[in-house]
Specification:
By secondary structure, the chain is an alpha/beta fold. It is built from 12 helices and 10 strands. The protein has 2 domains: 148 residues, 3-Layer(aba) Sandwich (Oxidized Rhodanese, domain 1), CATH 3.40.250.10; 136 residues, Oxidized Rhodanese, domain 1, CATH 3.40.250.10. A 5-stranded parallel sheet has the order 1-5-4-2-3. Strands 6-10-9-7-8 form a 5-stranded parallel sheet. The chain starts with a strand and ends in a 15-residue tail after the last helix.
């Protein structure tokens, strides 16, 4: 799923590789300037040769403002063509979050459109900078390529899919939001109601990341988005143990969701790391689910 920074440094000038910058944190704090602020971060310095892709404008359906559905095939095809990515291109992507978020969403989107030659940079640009590796302000000139989307429906769940699996013992639905959001203590701007999808278990990406799980300090977790420290997922066996605690096992189907399907893709990534094959991302997530008043929401009271 990953390449290391040294590997990328050794292959920066290789033909057939496209590096993609997906930095996004400032975008989510100021949605009315998404493209402008994300591109500013990219222009201030990126991994040499990297092209910039907007994780909202390029990877989601522009017909919908409040729900981040996956970009339709024709839209995604144009984005890939512009970025110089064809069906044989080796793609390496990164963002600036403490663990893969926008890069995980892009990785999942490429898989959804049948492109498996994609890796995430371990540690992202945080690790690259910490190691003193070079940055560039030059925007690479790339030739347009032809990318043909080949939809893989099995890794995407819809609202109807989730509804059908609400009481299915063979399906585990994972809520990837914060503890307070899951239990209905707070409501974010993307959700019209508090709580979670009934029957969903709680497992956000932080619980899968060494140094950010519940054994870590609250300060470390709260500052992780801005402290510039790279983090990594727990080793495979520890991930298996964590997922087993919420009844994830081979033979069961798993559906992940969050608010707008970034964290859900991060947990999807970790599930793939431990070999769970039957897993899908509900890209509509609570942004869609909470808006449909015919669908149930559950609020529970518990301590972390």
């Amino acid at each position: 799923m990953f390449v290391e920074t040294q590997w990328l440094a050794d292959h920066l000038n290789d033909g057939g590789i496209r590096i993609v910058d997906l930095r996004f944190i400032r975008c989510f704090s100021n949605h009315d300037k998404v493209a402008e602020e994300c591109r500013e971060d990219y222009m201030e310095g990126h991994i040499p040769g990297a092209v910039y892709i907007d994780c909202i404008g390029d990877l989601t359906d522009p017909s919908f403002k409040d729900v981040f559905y996956v970009a339709p095939p024709d839209h995604f095809e144009k984005v890939m063509n512009r970025a110089g990515i064809n069906n044989k291109t080796m793609v390496v992507c990164y963002d600036e979050a403490p663990y893969p978020l926008a890069s995980a969403r892009f990785w999942w989107t490429l898989l959804y459109y049948g492109h498996t030659r994609v890796k995430i940079l371990a540690g992202g640009i945080r690790k690259w900078i910490k190691e003193g590796r070079p940055l560039s302000t030059a925007v690479p000139k790339v030739s347009r390529e032809i990318f043909t989307p080949k939809v893989q429906e099995s890794i995407r769940a819809t609202k109807e899919t989730v509804k059908k699996n609400l009481s299915n013992d063979g399906t585990v639905i994972i809520d990837c939001l914060s503890f307070r959001q899951y239990h209905g203590k707070v409501r974010n701007s993307w959700s019209t109601r508090k709580g979670h999808i009934p029957g969903a278990v709680w497992l956000p990406p932080m619980e899968l990341v060494k140094g950010l799980d519940r054994a870590s300090s609250a300060r470390e977790r709260s500052e992780s988005m801005a402290n510039n420290k790279p983090y990594s997922f727990f080793p495979i066996e520890e991930l298996r143990r964590i997922f087993a605690q919420v009844s994830v096992e081979r033979g069961k189907r798993v559906i992940t969701y969050c608010g707008k399907a970034e964290a859900a893709c991060s947990v999807f990534l970790a599930l793939k790391m431990i070999g769970i094959e039957d897993v899908a991302v509900y890209d509509g997530s609570l942004a869609e689910w909470s808006r449909d008043l015919s669908l149930p929401m559950e609020v529970t009271s518990a301590r972390p």
